[in-house]
Design goal:
heterodimer; A: alpha/beta; four-stranded mixed β-sheet; 14 helices
């Protein structure tokens, strides 16, 4: 039995290793892509050109505010004397954002009267607009808190686990999770559909091997490939190049990754069982992967999403995995607080796995 | 049946001796028949609709209901006033707990809360005296984007407290005017990028098996031994896929306008021209994968890898393209989606159309991409074993 298991395992690996291109792309996803993304992708305002219009001329407060617009968040500061020119330059993409300080800004501000600053923002740069907006609002808020007249309120802000809000650890973990999700789904689905497509099922049928054993060993062969990729990317990129520490239990991280890849292989199995050809496998993978990616938290928290999406996300193994992975790597959460996530991922993995095995098993 | 058969035979005979375009039309007919047989057309149209719904409703940059714990060691009227700014708002789901700071911080560590506000015991006294007071703000920094948004909300809440309650002090308001997206709706900011992503993913995946399937089934020998030229063979693959997928381009446009309520301020011609080029690029990527791979499985995996992950990364949906550095900066510029995304934003939200030289440049760049990708396809496609 074990012998049969090993033979099928070996056959699947042979299949995989014959395709040099495939090996390269698995390597690309687990190592190169994570490195490039971690190194180069910023999730804050970066290199923004800003325009300032100070209607009074040499306002003291405006000069103070302008000191906050420095690299790397801001690239160039342009000073204007004409309102229309600011609008025009935003349209021409010369600047992304403009601040207009009214004539009586200094006087009103030091008198404690209400005064309005106009903030003009080009929102077509999507995410960058949002990050710039947040940055500017912070500057203005902090400026006010710092410049009250008597005493001062000092807000001691602590960003726990990532004091500088550096994107590197966050992005590289996110990309690692995406790589695991994409590959485990598509590799597993294709392992089965290929047999269907090339009519080699017949050989499997004739072989004196239990059909469940075939399915199991096929899946395990892919899970192991994923785990090798996982260790490679943790070892080379996260530990080696970026030196991101794992604050929680590394063993738990490995176990939960293993469970998660079984769950996503289960999804792959499901895709394989309902697809009639390989085109369908590809399209269905996109169909499932994109929602999984956007609904799992990480980009915006799950509790901010509409109720229905929150509910649906309970069915997504990625939700639990994202939580646990970030808990273990960043927060160093103790395992006793994550039992519900472990349970969630375990239950979903079991259901998907059993369902997929049955559905595929029926083809025997 | 016999009729169809004899007709096909007739067609075949014609195609051998007849002018080029008849050979081509025969090939195109054959492709369409295969689409219908494979029943993939259903997925080709339902998939983009489902994706745009998911992305349009699913992504939001708004962070609300931040789980907040307030540790108030002062318990005075002034400190309660500060607390009030964290209640009665959609941004915070606050709870005041009578626990020590360390215990509260442990809640962050165990992911039970996102934010802890610590008000020290001498808060009111110091404020009245005009001394410095400290407010401790502890945020979960695990997700940097969420953390920064949180930071902004906390500053706003404290600023409001400073302005409204305690001091007769400077009072500064900012009045945002968001050009092109006045109410800063997330769906407006996301849909143009989502359309680009979908037009990258679906046609590429749809086209990825066109040639490799023939290789695996051995029918590619028909091409080797027929009088079809390489260009005719390629056109025979591209045209049907283009016809099927161009429908999606306008389907997405309609959904964007009527379902998500986006304005369409730009030029329809710019939308059409740039979409045609980008669709051709997407099909070209699929075709290229099909040309270079030897098995269908390798082809879909390769397509998924070269489209899904870079597509999400470089379409600007989750991370700003203009803020990239290092190798990512160059990849974003070598990968065609960025240019198309920018044109899409112009079409929906800005509306400069042909009057902006940026748009014209980007359309020109897309046309070069199209040319290059099909040229590579032409070079790599072999008409012999």
């Amino acid at each position: 039995m074990i012998n049969q298991f090993l033979i099928i395992l070996k056959k699947e690996w042979l299949d995989l290793f014959r395709s040099k291109g495939l090996i390269f792309f698995v390597f690309y996803l687990f190592v190169i892509n994570i490195y490039i993304a971690g190194e180069g992708i910023n999730i804050d305002a970066r290199g923004v050109n800003i325009g300032i219009l100070d209607e009074k001329g040499n306002s003291v407060y405006v000069t103070k505010i302008v000191t906050h617009f420095h690299p790397p968040e801001f690239k160039k500061i342009y000073f204007y004397s004409d309102r229309n020119k600011i609008y025009e330059d935003i349209k021409n993409k010369k600047i992304m954002v403009g601040l207009i300080f009214p004539k009586d800004f200094d006087r009103f501000f030091s008198d404690g009267k209400q005064v309005k600053v106009q903030l003009l923002l080009d929102t077509t740069v999507a995410t960058l607009s949002y990050y710039t907006y947040t940055y500017l609002v912070n500057v203005i808020n902090n400026f006010q808190i710092e410049n009250i007249q008597k005493g001062s309120i000092i807000v001691d802000k602590h960003r726990l686990f990532n004091q500088n809000s550096s994107a590197k650890p966050y992005i590289s973990l996110r990309e690692l999770i995406s790589a695991i999700t994409l590959l485990s789904m598509i590799l597993t689905a294709s392992v089965f559909v290929r047999e269907k497509d090339q009519d080699t099922w017949d050989f499997m049928l004739l072989a004196p091997v239990n059909s469940y054993l075939i399915i199991l060993s096929k899946i395990i062969s892919q899970v192991l490939v994923i785990m090798v990729g996982f260790f490679l990317s943790i070892g080379v990129v996260l530990f080696g190049i970026f030196q991101i520490p794992v604050r929680g239990s590394f063993t738990a991280f490995i176990i939960v990754t293993f469970l998660y890849s079984i769950a996503t292989c289960g999804i792959g199995l499901f895709i394989a069982s309902i697809s009639k050809n390989i085109t369908q496998v590809g399209l269905l993978t996109i169909f499932i992967l994109i929602p999984l990616n956007f609904f799992s938290g990480g980009t915006s928290p799950i509790y901010s999403k509409p109720a229905i999406i929150q509910f649906v996300s309970y069915l997504s193994p990625l939700r639990y995995y994202t939580e646990t992975a970030y808990n273990l790597v960043f927060r160093g959460t103790e395992i006793k607080y994550m039992l519900d996530d472990f349970l969630g991922i375990f239950i979903i993995a079991s259901i998907l796995f059993i369902y997929g095995v049955r559905k595929i098993g029926r083809l025997f | 049946m016999i009729n169809v058969h004899s007709k096909r035979k007739e067609n075949f005979q014609k195609s051998i001796s007849c002018p080029k375009f008849k050979r081509l039309s025969g090939l195109i007919q054959k492709e369409f028949i295969e689409y219908l047989k494979d029943k993939v057309l259903f997925l080709v149209y339902t998939l983009p609709i489902a994706l745009i719904l998911v992305i349009g409703y699913g992504i939001n940059f708004d962070t609300e209901h931040i789980r907040t714990i307030i540790v108030n060691q002062d318990k005075t009227p002034v400190s309660y006033k500060l607390e009030q700014n964290f209640y009665n708002t959609k941004y915070f789901d606050s709870e005041t707990l009578d626990i020590g700071l360390n215990k509260a911080l442990n809640y962050i560590k165990s992911n039970k809360t996102d934010l802890v506000i610590a008000i020290p015991s001498s808060f009111e006294k110091n404020i009245v005296k005009g001394d410095d007071v400290h407010i401790g703000v502890y945020m979960d920094g695990t997700y940097p984007t969420i953390c920064k948004t949180m930071d902004g909300y906390v500053s706003s809440a404290i600023r409001q407290f400073v302005g409204d309650e305690v001091y007769i002090s400077p009072y500064l308001l900012y009045e945002p005017r968001n050009l092109f997206n006045q109410s800063m709706k997330t769906s407006w900011a996301v849909i143009p990028g989502a359309i680009a992503l979908i037009i990258l993913l679906v046609p590429a995946m749809f086209s990825a098996l066109m040639i490799v399937k023939e290789k695996e089934h051995g029918t590619v020998f028909n091409f080797f031994s027929s009088p079809l030229t390489k260009i005719e063979f390629m056109l025979g693959k591209i045209i049907p896929s283009f016809v099927v997928n161009i429908v999606t381009v306008y389907l997405l446009l309609l959904l964007g306008i009527f379902l998500f309520g986006l304005p369409f301020r730009g030029s329809f011609v710019v939308y059409t021209i740039s979409s045609i080029f980008f669709l051709l690029i997407s099909i070209g990527i699929g075709l290229l994968v099909s040309v270079i791979t030897e098995s269908q499985v390798a082809a879909i995996i390769l397509t998924a890898i070269v489209t899904i992950i870079p597509g999400i990364l470089y379409a600007g949906l989750v991370s700003p393209i203009d803020a990239m550095e290092g190798i990512a900066y160059y990849i974003a510029r070598v990968y065609p989606i960025m240019y198309y995304v920018k044109i899409m934003y112009d079409c929906f939200l800005v509306g400069d159309g042909f009057s902006s030289h940026v748009n014209i440049t980007y359309i020109f760049i897309l046309s070069i991409f199209t040319f290059v990708i099909y040229f590579i396809n032409y070079l790599l496609l072999r008409k012999k074993i």
